[in-house]
# Entry
Amino acid sequence: MPRSQLRLQPRTGKLARMRRTLLRSLALAVVLLASPTHAAQTYSEQVVERTLDNGFKMLLLEDHKAPVAVVQVWYRVGSRNELPGTTGLSHMLEHMMFKGTVKNGPEEYSRVIARNGGNENAFTSDDATTYFATLASDRIEVEVGLEADRMRNLVLSEQLFEPERKVVMEERRMRTDNNPIGFMFESLNAATFLEHPYRQPVIGWATDIEGWKLADLKHHYDLYYQPNNAFLVAVGDFDAQQFGDLVAAQFGGHARGGDPPVVRAREQPPRGERRVAVERPARLPFVSLQYQAPNLHHADAPALEMLESVLSNGKSSRLYQRLVREQRLALDAGASYARTAIDDKTFTLSGQPQPGVSADQLEKALLAEIEALQKAPPSDDELKRARSQVEAAFVFAQDSMFYRGLLLGTYEIAGGWRQIDEFLPAMEKVTPQQVQEVARKYLTPINRTVGVLVPLPTDDAAPLEQMPAGPMS
Amino acid sequence: MMHSDSTFRSRGPGAGGARATLVGLVLTALALASVATAAGPIVERTTLDNGIRLVMSTQRSVPIVTVNCIIDGGARVDPPGKAGLASLTGSLLSEGTKGRTSEDISRLIDTLGGSFDTGTSSDWVLVSAAVLSRDFETGVDLVARSLREPTFPPEEVERRKKETLGELEADEDQPGVVAQRAFRTAVFGDAAYGHSVDGTPSSVTGLTRDDVLAYHRQEIQPGRTICAIVGDVPTSEMKAMAQKLLGGWQAGGAGYVARAAQPPAARSVVVDRPVTQANIVLGQIGVARSNPDYFPILLMNYVLGGGGFNSRLMQTIRTKGGLAYSVSSHFEGNKLPGPFQVALQTKVESAAEHVVHPIKLVREEIVKLHRDGATTAELDAAKDYLTGSFPLRLDSTGKLAGFLGQIEYFGLGDDYIERYAERVRAVTLEDVRKAAQKYLQPEALVQVVVAPATKLAEQGITASPDAAKGS
# Structure
């Protein structure tokens, strides 16, 4: 499952129900982030890149289909940059960024954007923290000014910090502690990665959330919220030269900061299968097979992407056709390749068993699908479908300025936005044999970590005190 | 992961994306690129001889086209004892048509790289295709065959039934969904909107292929169908294609009758679950989408809990109190009066009033707005947001197609988009005060809490004697 997606921690949220289409569409979401088309203009031809003396970069893409623009400010910091004991600081800081600056009071940011008819929000992932607003294009100056202000002038006080710590604890209760599948994935990630901070949850461990000090947060802010550790992406109805000058005027006044610490951790390949079983009150089990896999910088990335697509892109894909429809073992099943992670990450297959089917049965069925691809390459027809979906998805993504911005920002974080243009041509060259080869190379027992949600009865309510992540404070 | 990505919540009144996929949610809820100008898109309307209403708009910016057909009915008209029938029928429209199996259909759409979905809401069945504009005919053809000649293969009926039962089971692991279901049942009972669109385990178990055939015969008809077509195709071609593939469709059944609910008395429902965070829903029957006070209600609700961080509930419960991650209020404007509700989640702890306290704060805010109305500053802020952000709600072909379909469905008028801002600005403080007094009934709130019953009892929260047992 795309963790760059699934671990986003937006500032506001609501419970979303799981849909049977969800796992299948997760694959598509990643593909949407992935694919240029040879037919259309390349991003390199369209994007204006400028870097200020203080190191602040901007990526500006004119798109004049409507008098609207999206502005996103990306900071190169997420849970990947955090340390044991203070996990979750990046996400907490994201919340605090709405609490006001020297010049603007608490929540003033949201008030001003709303008064200008804009929609704003923010999200944090393992790799980055992103703030964004969509507005009428004649109002984007407002957003640029507010972002430039809060990059360096945030007010962090105990008075604002304490209620927000409680809010984040509620967010954790909602996303993780009372969501059995979310809870399982948290444990699975911690087992998949022993050395790399990808083992840490974006929202932070409950005990860490309880223990944060205001000084931790200030330190985090000063270390990472510097012009040389951030960049701005804008897509919309503006003149790139003129808009760039405006951004330069607003952000150019910040002095260049120190270089943030480099994340040096490198996960070593596992030498045997690991298994995690998580017991939570739940009606249905869940199973996930997580394999370590290289990111987009590796030559195998295009074939891994096609492998993901053959397995789970569209209703004609293998996992849906075989496990959901034919064998009726899963309510849903899907695959997800974390191609745009900064460091090498994962290729994951997951599924929720139908009632009456055990996690073990579904695990075996998922393994059988892997073995089938290791024994014989996918058909030309399958590969053709996978390709046309990716190409079309790229065209559909152009319908959304926000999504184009997300694409640019995600690639810039992962190693450079210009790589967007390299991806589709590389995928065009992938052969069925190469898909088979990467299945053999990466989807191996010793490279695997299995996560299983073991349901406990929900009717005779297990006492709260026995639950690992009970109420804090 | 299933819980997080779709969690972006647009700050304005819910526009409601039809597609429930992750991509759909990310794209629609996040808002963004726009195909509409301030003046509004150019829209053409026509009615085919068989009664299908077409709403069409050419948008040239991206070579794609969306075809959205909605057929009035939906879960609202599920016959007594057959909750979930509309949803089962709707989901089966893409699982086999004359000469094409379910797998044929999946392969066809995946080969094109488009999407083809069918689904059901409280008020309608939706059949929708989004394709590259070069594949326009195939897109309309998929939609037309699903409406006109679905085959409902017996094995697909059984498979979908079993899947639905599984999905209902999976939903039980989501306390927020459990709370919503219990709330609907408590407010609407056996009447329209009283059950989940998917039905209940016992009702779904009892559904048969004959029921599905009957629903299709009774409800899926051209006279009840609105098709919105938006994208990179001339409207003349849109109309010709609809005429060619849908013009010959003849069907007519009496249809099922929806039963409107009687307003329930105040009551408390407790659903016992071993969770560490209580899911709370408070509300009552709200208004129909066609209510003449729609705009005053919209502004009033923005002030209460529809305006994200600018709303009173968010300020009181989250910003000041740190009591919840999300809290919002919402009027769901349906064909018949739909729910009004406030929803939030807060931690459960014994020996403290951790659930009682936020509920009290929510009730106080409702009482205050009911009694005093809003302030000028609040009203101005709400107007600025709603008028300024309106174009962002029409900012993709898919969203525009959905919006145009709803304008037609609810009979909001051909000038709805053009006059939206003017109507928002015309609302006065007095209008808002009257709307709050008329449509908020603080004494008649139905309250649902999903949490460990023993912990709730310690805080004095118990079920009313008459309250429906929560699931």
Summary: Chain A touches chain B through 114 residues (CB under 8 Å). The longest strand of chain A covers residues 345-353.
